[in-house]
Amino acid sequence: MSPAWKALIVLAAYALGAVPFGLVLTRLFTGRDVRAVGSGNIGASNVARAAGKKLGVLTLVLDAAKASIPMLLMRALLADEGPAVAERWMIAVGLAAFLGHLYPVWLGFKGGKGVATALGVFAVLAPIPALLALVTFGAAYAATRVPAVGSLSGTAVCCLGAIVQTMLARGGASAAFASPVPWAALFVTLFIYLRHRANIARLLQGAENKV
């Protein structure tokens, strides 16, 4: 596949990642603008507040799929170019979808916090850490009833798990960080924590909203 086609697929992944499924579903089924409810976020947690848990779960699935499906497609398309090339471009596609969710062109670059889309990225790159992250989110949320605590805890577990998985697969830290996987994990985690700055401030003040 030519570099131009690869770049075009990355751009298409950004455009797909920029689709605000939470906003669309809430408007379609309730007529409400999810940005005017609760935290104002377009992600699954706020959709659950605005339109119910079923639509919140559907938003989670769709926001994850808009990263994982393009990644799997890219990996399949580049299978004959070798695993290293396929991995690099697959990660580029996943990060493009992730950034599309955070900075969607369709909403004036004002998007969500990226947790579900990051889960879609990790589900392909590091499935076991992604599963552990879901368990961590569930446990932290059940204990606190604060979605941000679950999201931040799950993200940290997923990032650490992806790095450890790569170290084990490649035989050490130096070989692991020669792979783009740990760097992608750190990149995604940094952006998620930055997008949760206000939540972290409220948590420190004991003022974060519960659901």
Based on secondary structure, the structural category is mainly alpha
Major sheet, described briefly?
Answer: none
Mean pLDDT: 93
Roughly how much helix do the residues carry, as a percent range? over 70%
**What is the quaternary state of this protein?**
single chain
Q: Which ranges are low-confidence, i.e. pLDDT below 50, for 5 or more consecutive residues?
A: none
Total number of beta strands: 0
Percent of residues in β-strands: under 5%
Q: Rough shape? A: globular
What does the radius of gyration come to? 17 Å
Order of helices and strands: HHHHHHHHHHH
Q: Count of DSSP helices?
A: 11
Number of domains: 1
* Measured distance between first and last alpha carbons: 47 Å
What does this structure look like?
One of its GO terms (molecular function) is acyl-phosphate glycerol-3-phosphate acyltransferase activity. The chain crosses the membrane at residues 7-29, 55-77, 89-109, 115-141, 148-168, 174-194. It is a multi-pass membrane protein. One of its GO terms (biological process) is phospholipid biosynthetic process. This protein is an all-alpha fold and 211 residues long. The chain contains eleven helices and no strands. Helix 5 (83-102) packs antiparallel against helix 6 and helix 8 (147-170) packs antiparallel against helix 10 (180-195). It has helices at residues 3-17, 21-30, 44-51, 53-77, 83-102, 115-125, 127-144, 147-170, 173-176, 180-195, 197-205. It has one domain.
SSE blueprint:
Elements: H1 3-17, H2 21-30, H3 44-51, H4 53-77, H5 83-102, H6 115-125, H7 127-144, H8 147-170, H9 173-176, H10 180-195, H11 197-205
